[in-house]
Amino acid sequence: MSLRTLIALAILLAACGGPAPGDIDLDRWRKADREPDQWLALGRTFRGDRYSPLTRINAENVATLGFAWEYPARARRGRVEHGQEATPIVVDGVLYVSGPWGAVFAVDAKTGGERWRYDPEVEGSYARRACCDVVNRGLQVWRGKVYVGTLDGYLVALDAATGREVWRVDTFTDRDTRYYTITGPPQVAKDVVVIGNSGGEFGVRGYITAYDLETGQQRWRFFIVPGDPAKGPPEHPEMAAALKTWDPNSNWESGLGGTVWGEMNYDPDLNLLYVGTGNSSPYPIWYRSPSGGDNLFLVSILAINPDDGRLKWHYQQTPGEIWDYTATANMILADLPIGGRVRKVIMQAPKSGFYFVLDRETGEFISAEPFVFVNWATGYDSTGRPILNPKAVYREAPAVVFPSMVGAHNWQPMAFNPETGLAYIPGREQGMVVVSEPQYKWRQGAGNVGVGAFLPGIADALPEAVRAAFMGIVKASPDLPPIDSGEALIAYDPVAQQERWRVPVGSTDWSGGGVLTTAGNLVIQGTSAGFLTTYRADTGEKLGAIEVGTAIMAAPVTYEIDGEQYVAVIAGLGGAIAASMHPPGTAPYRYQNYGRILAFKLGGGKVPLPPERVAQMTPEPPALPGYSEELAARGEAAWGAAGCLFCHGAYGEARLSAYPDLYRMTAESHAAFDSIVLGGKLARAGMASFSDVLTAQDVAAIHAYLVREQGKLRRKELERP
């Protein structure tokens, strides 16, 4: 090429402003390893391994990693912004990431300067329809568009250059009576973009839907579980086959579950879309499918042809599941030496505590071994079916079961490093006591799990008698380990199916976030305690911890611009952990909770910390007309039954919560209590009316209970020296 031609090309590129924003296509995705400076998918490449070949930041110099820039990842509506769980995508100098409600932020990846932001203007009442906060776990960037799902069920295509809506489609089949939401990321698969949904805890029927990338026109829909055959024939051949694995008299009204709310994967070489499916609704099979059955396609990995939505193969991890063991954790595609030959595999470490390795071409079961303590099954047989432990079945009596329904590994993404051959899992050693609900019936807008569960994280929030009863059940099982041994970063060899090292992260209340690993012999993980922590990938040696003052639950990414390598992550406390409880006496969260995108580089500065929380005296509660101890006692029961405790149980900051502490309300909040709880005064901010589940008498009782507890807190504080 002549000098004149090169100059002309440079002028043309300058005139065009360089590459078009969000310019990713199938060819570029396939060749992502040729662009290690980019992060083109949630897992960097279609393999989803969250491994970067970059080495400028490495185990020898990571101690000098410091602050580069930050961006306030908050929408414009004045809401409490928390629950930042998404992995960013970085394309040609622009970082794209989703936030709560389905908001999107596009910022300069070198400086943190805003390019644009998008607020989907979700009606605040949808916060009540989400089991685990208003979170969003990611987006896709493709051919100049950004695809994101909104909490209220819309799949939106945005212009990658401006953030303008290109198209928007309603993905819900039943918006009126079912509590569906979208919290998971969409997945591009060849010519379609596919989205699932959440809501299994409320009793819904899961499905995924594929839409045309350019127009948003629906191409196909794949249901995960059958519908009521009395209302019509199965929607597609796979449902006709699945129907045979269910009781003809199944509890069709309950939806049956199977939602797809985790990350999916697409293998462009095999042209297969991989989908991990969710738990049952309700959990007990004796209420769901009384005569038993495998109950396809609950808790399964599905391989689907994206051209027509037809199933190529499936593997069910937990047939007839009863413990909320979803198969929605992130999956990783890898080529591994197994049995003397290299095999194309798909790997997953789900809630159930077993690490699964399958042939991703055929679905053949290769291996499954526990990566934490497990007692619901003793292992898997050669056909890939679990060998169940009858002691873990809670139909007749409460059972102590490991892992808990929080999961041995939940949504926080694991990573795989092909250099070390190790997967890095944010793991949890935790059990639960689970008991069958005496009489289950589907209830619109309410929890429809059909069980009661004792989890260590909420133990202190239970009434004394209930807590004592559950602890008695735990103590009656001396052959089991402690019900809560905390969390750990686990380095796991998927070929040998053996742990290589583990590093304790903390209790379940201060958990580890998603994981990044690099060719610089690094594993990088944030914690909800507000630190970005680095380890040697080969040995697990801790190399450093940067305090950021904001919880990190999401997985970091790394990229390179102008010869400088960056590590970036979105931070902000939220999700299920925001409403979990930790024991009184444990230090409350130190800093105010801000949603932030944080970036780091070698030689960077100290991270600016958010303002510290200021300890406040509990206000004197008002004299409530009609107050009585009997009314307050009734209110305590209603407070728990309505789920208020889940979000608002901070109890004077003695417990962790990202929501307002209703045990320390101001006089203004007390005066507006009815208008908030029944009238929906703060619906725009996410606190919708509860008039559909609470009567005026219920609200008066709850108010009395809060006044009683606020008085107790006030007196304790006044008695302190």
Kindly describe this structure.
- The protein is α+β, with helices and mostly antiparallel strands and 721 residues long.
- It has two domains: 26-602, 8 Propeller (Methanol Dehydrogenase, Chain A); 629-719, Orthogonal Bundle (Cytochrome Bc1 Complex, Chain D, domain 2), CATH 1.10.760.10.
- The chain contains eleven helices and 40 strands.
- It has a five-stranded mixed β-sheet, with no helix packed on it.
- The chain starts with a helix and ends with a helix.
In short:
With 721 residues, the chain is α+β, with helices and mostly antiparallel strands. It is 14% helix and 30% strand.
What multimeric state do the chains show? single chain
Q: Choose one word for the global shape.
A: globular
Mean pLDDT: 90
Q: Approximately how much beta-strand content do the residues carry?
A: 25-35%
The tally of helices reads 11
Question: Structural class, please?
Answer: alpha+beta
Largest sheet: 5 strands, mixed
Major sheet: arrangement of strands: 1-34-35-36-37
The whole-angstrom Rg is 25 Å
